[in-house]
Amino acid sequence: MEQSQLALDRIVIELTERLAEDEYAPLVE
What we know:
Layout: H1 2-28
């Protein structure tokens, strides 16, 4: 149970980072 929770948290963090990159990429360029 704990292991799957950690995996889920990791997925959420990765998706959040990708969304942040997509949002900020146009501002950087």
